[in-house]
Specification:
The complex is a heterodimer of chains A (about 325) and B (about 400).
Chain A: E1 3-5, H1 6-20, E2 24-28, H2 44-48, E3 53-55, H3 60-73, E4 76-80, H4 91-97, H5 101-104, E5 115-120, H6 135-139, E6 145-147, H7 152-164, E7 169-174, E8 182-184, E9 198-201, E10 206-210, H8 214-227, E11 232-236, E12 239-241, H9 245-255, E13 258-265, H10 270-282, E14 291-295, H11 305-308, H12 312-324
Parallel strand pairs in A: 2-3, 2-4, 4-5, 5-7, 6-7, 10-11, 10-13, 13-14
Antiparallel strand pairs in A: 1-8, 6-12, 9-11
Helix pairs in contact in A: 1-7, 3-4, 8-12, 9-10
Chain B: H1 46-71, H2 85-93, E1 100-102, H3 108-114, H4 118-126, H5 159-173, E2 179-184, H6 191-203, E3 207-213, E4 216-217, E5 220-221, H7 234-237, E6 241-246, H8 250-267, E7 271-276, H9 295-302, H10 306-317, H11 322-345, H12 364-379, H13 385-389
Parallel strand pairs in B: 1-2, 2-3, 3-7, 6-7
Antiparallel strand pairs in B: 4-5
Helix pairs in contact in B: 1-2, 1-3, 1-10, 1-11, 2-3, 2-8, 4-11, 5-6
Classes of the chains: A alpha/beta (about 325), B alpha/beta (about 400).
Keywords (chain A): Oxidoreductase, Thiamine pyrophosphate
InterPro entries (chain A): THDP-binding, Transketo_C/PFOR_II, Transketolase-like_Pyr-bd, Transketolase_C
Organism (chain A): Modicisalibacter xianhensis
Chain lengths: ~325, ~400
Amino acid sequence: MPKMNMLQAINNALDIAMAADDKVICFGEDVGIFGGVFRATSHLQEKYGRARCFNTPLVEQGIIGFANGLAAQGSTPVAEIQFADYIFPAFDQIVNESAKFRYRSGDLFNVGGLTIRTPYGGGISGGLYHSQSPEAYFAHTPGLKIAVPRNPHQAKGLLLAAIRDPNPVLFFEPKRLYRASTGEVPEEDYQLPLGQAEIVKEGGDITLLAWGAQMEMVEKAAELAEKEGVSCEIIDLRTIVPWDIDTVVDSVLKTGRLVVTHEAPLTGGFAGEIAATIQERCFLYLESPIARVTGLDTPFPLTLEKEYMPDHLKVFEAIKQSMAF
Amino acid sequence: MTTTTTAPVVHSLAFMNGDEFRIPVFKLLKRDGTPYKHAKLPELDKDKALRIYRAMLFTRVLDERMLAAQRQGRLSFYMQCTGEEATIIGSAAALDDEDMIMAQYREQGALAYRGFGVDEFMDQLFGNERDHGKGRQMPVHYGSKDLHYMTISSPLATQIPQATGYAYGQKLSGLGHCTLTVFGEGAASEGDFHAALNMASVHQVPVIFLCRNNGYAISTPAHEQFSADGIAPRAFGYHMKVVRVDGNDILAVYQATREARCWAVENNRPVLIEAMTYRLAAHSSSDDPSGYRSKKEEEAWRDKDPVLRMRLWLEQQGWWAEEDEKREQDTLRREVLEAMKRAEKRPPPPLESLVTDVYDQVPPLLAEQLDRLKEHIRKYPDAYPRGARGLKEDTQGSGGGEHA
């Protein structure tokens, strides 16, 4: 099996999707001959031509508006928003149009072919506008699916699933891991199911839940905790909408403790949704309050980024507090 | 040329403000239905002319009856096309019937022209179980896949960049279709308008942007919407062909759109049309124009009635007469009233339609929510008469989910 970094895995997934179906069309700012500012679309224009892989003008609302129309027409657009921080000009097209297209037309029309790829997250000294994790805004809008990979293998399998899913999917790529995360990736075409979490490591004392880049923090924290004799069960949610409630519930029924962590701010973050659902379903089994380890309720900082980030030490502390409750 | 590399060079400073370009208005018919001297009318056979006129009359009758129904409390909301029928129906008639139309919300005339049935109109307006949109949207948010008419969305201008994308797909599929998108001069202030025109020009897309400049965005007059000479000059900024037509002159609209369509499809290029018209009706049934414009102004535009102008022209061709008009109007009124009565009586969509079509399949969490809702409605059926209807026989409470 070849070794790839996450960008290569994403590029490989796009290549496979475009080769398999000539309705797949990739576009966005700088994705053409340049291959995207991170090179996720490298060589796609050379291979598939300018009609199927191209630069757009610098207008996010236009990119997604265009993508919605193209998907409604029956194509399979894969639109790139260069940074998740810049997705907001397209907010209306995503939450009022992509998400509601099928519902409002009574299923006469849909934009199920649409996939929006966008790099998210901190840890790259990107400051306010190259670091955000805006998944919770979109999770609050029925009609969208949201997937976040944590490594190259997932990135390829989840992206292929997203492209072929008959619903619009937002695909948040952890840009800190684009080159940092490497691993074996099957050469062939494969998909990982949307809506299904992955139990990364089994354990009996406490459940640790995250997705995307934050999985790295959870794994490091678990190593520290294990040294102190705490057996951690680690779950990668992989898909935020729809999220795999059953897998998390089964785990918490077993462990009685849950730590959820994400980079986005605390208030209104998706961890709140998870905590509410789990306390509802596991109330009598909980040994301690569900802990949330998140970014602060501030804009994303620059110089003090390390202090802001919900790193492995903060997760480790939350594990200890939960165990000692 | 789309770049500045070929621009002439000057050495004395001179600003330009666009007044160099005065965009004329293309007209063919006078108010009395006779052609202007030297006007070359488009070829329009009797069948097509009557198809157009019947759609105009239908739209007028529908709008009158449905506004009245709204005033009687039978309908929650309504929007009239009145005054703009020539712009809407003239442009729709100039397309192939398989071209996509992506409209704003006041363009029911185009659907009428394409053959949307009177019952289909009524079922949407009353949001009953036969509404294609399953009772989910406010009245006038029609859509028809069969008639290539995209379901209406309330947010303004969102359909414009979508039309660019749709037409890009049409270009790639190579079947020779195009997309017509319609919007008001107010919606043209939205960012989506500019995004759409720029992308259509850059990506060379067969899309026709039809702005119906009807003078008002609810109460805001056009001169408070923009300070330039209307919408048409914006095309220059995007290197796009543009024409301005008298939107109350159906033959002018028809011919302009027809040629725009030919050019767009043959060259894979966008075209902008600005149709100068007037919203004779209120913005919607919730609006009262007496607060922002004069009766005198409205009367002046009533004299330019586009339906009357078409009728006069038809009469001059010997294709229409007083008795045809009376018979047609009576028939249409009767059909609309009968269809309204039928639609009012039809039951609402089933409770399950609350949760279908959010995704292609109902996800487990949503199915669970439906189950809980059903349980609740069973406890208080009188409080939810619509939702309680279908629950009487269905006592299992399995909802939409197999997960339970």
